[in-house]
Design goal:
two-stranded parallel ribbon; two-stranded parallel sheet; single chain; alpha/beta
Length: 89
Amino acid sequence: ASKGIIFSHAIASNGGPSLYCVDSDSNKQGKYLECSGVLVLKPHQISAKFKKHALMIVMNENHVNYAKKLFLNNYKIISLANLSLLNIN
């Protein structure tokens, strides 16, 4: 959770794009991440909110395969560890 909080705060405080968080923990869903105010969604809310092929960044590399299975490869899913490999302008 702390990686997501730090990452979202850095993006939000630097004028980055709108972010959303998804978590399978029902205790976190519908709440906002500390500092950044990013809304935590339920996994099933993602497909209704985002177009296919949107970028999804998984904070913990151990959850990449779970995310790919859950979202059926409808999104570009990368881990935070691989973020430096992207050429984002």
